[in-house]
Amino acid sequence: MPSKVTQFSRFVLVGPFPDPVNGVSLVNQALSRRLVTLTGCVASTRKTSSNLKQKHLGKFARFIANILLLPFSLGRHQSVMYISIAGGVYQGLDVFYLFFARLCRARIYVHHHSFNYLNRKSPLSALLFRICGPRSQHVVLGERMAFLLRDLYPEVQETHVLSNVAFMNVSEFAEGASAKDEVFTVGFLSNVCREKGGDLVEIIKLASERDIPVRFKIAGPVVDASLEAELIELSKLHRNVELIGPVYGDQKSDFLNSLNLFIFPTKYHNEAEPLVLWEAMKAGVPFLSYDRGVIAELTEAPMCEIVKGASGMVSGIEQVHTLFVDDFEAYDHQRQDLSDFFMKKREACMITLDHLLLEL
Asked: What is the C-alpha to C-alpha distance for residues 262 and 189, in angstroms, rounded to an integer?
């Protein structure tokens, strides 16, 4: 199918890009690279900040520079703006990007990454979607996100479901731990904060009380110092708890490949579709997670389940551990099925992504 992108004089991609490295910035980077590979079209990027440590003044200065350059980037000929919108108050800045896009008669594609404005209706989001116009196209992470978006905001008419797995690199595909004689290892990887891992302490204590012989490995940058102090104290009392700290690149791959089970006790209100769950599945590592965003839609994968609360998480850990000990062949077979599921899902989503890009 010939690409429509080459018909346009301008293609502008607005959103966070590395650095810093996070899920949204990695998706935008992968999208830009895929556009070049598929169509030969190089996007003009306008980087917005996703760095929580950057001062508001710095974010505003970047915004002003982007806005001043935007009319020149879009021009007055046929053009496309593809924007990854913010989840909260910074949608107020996205409004201006979209206003200029409409002014320049650009076709608008909006990529959604947050449930902040889907957990309840936001007047700011409603304004933003009215500015986008009825012909705008909205890229969402799952069917639940599509339903809520159309239900809360009648201005949104066209949605395309595209999972984050479409943007994952599989060039360094590896498989998780599978040796039966090794200690069953449960891992967590995310920002170490109350919203993402606040239940880790209770989970570890409950597992110890139930005498479940597992090892816990906790990785990720510390965001909450008080939670870190609790985990350090816990690791002193329980030798089966290992605090690793931030992991990136090969270290991240090695960490995931060392696991038998991944847990994600997130209570983050705006959680959508964490890339780390797909990264675990890529390594053939099943996950247990609390129900947030579209995570439930990932549980069609083998041994991946939604659990409720710390007690439910520990019961899930015990169940997978029992399978690992009592019927290792069945566990290993399902782990292989999980890796196959990941590859098939990624292939299907890549087809969806390519179709979307060719229709731009």
From this structure: 8
Q: What CA dihedral angle connects 341, 21, 161 and 35, to 10 degrees?
A: -100
135 SS3 class = coil
- 199-214: per-residue pLDDT in tens? 999 999 999 999 999 9
Q: What is the pLDDT of residue 8?
A: 47
Which are the contacts of 282, defined by CB distance < 8 A and separation ≥ 6? Answer: 168, 170, 173, 256, 339, 342
Listed in order, strand segments (DSSP E) in the chain are 10-16, 44-48, 79-84, 107-111, 137-140, 158-161, 184-189, 214-219, 241-245, 261-264, 287-289, 305-306
On whether the CB atoms of residues 195 and 116 are closer than 8 A, the answer is no
Give CA–CA dist 70/204, Å, rounded. 51
Tell me the per-residue pLDDT of 150-173, one tens digit each, with 9 for 90 and over.
Answer: 999 999 999 999 999 999 887 655
Nearest CA to 82 out of 119, 27, 142 is that of 27
At what angle are helices 275-282 and 249-257 packed, to 10 degrees? 60
Where residue 10 falls (left for φ over 0; alpha for ψ -120 to 50; beta otherwise) is beta
> 244: closest CA among 315, 202, 306, 187?
187
CB 78 within 8 A of CB 7: yes
DSSP-derived letter for residue 21 is: P
Which of 306, 301, 305 has the alpha carbon at shortest distance from 340? 301
Cα(13)–Cα(349) distance, integer angstroms: 20
Helix axes 23-39, 275-282, angle to 10 degrees: 70
User: What are 124's two structure tokens?
Assistant: 């700011």
CA-to-CA distance for 81 and 109, rounded, in angstroms? 6
Distance CA 176, CA 180 (A): 12
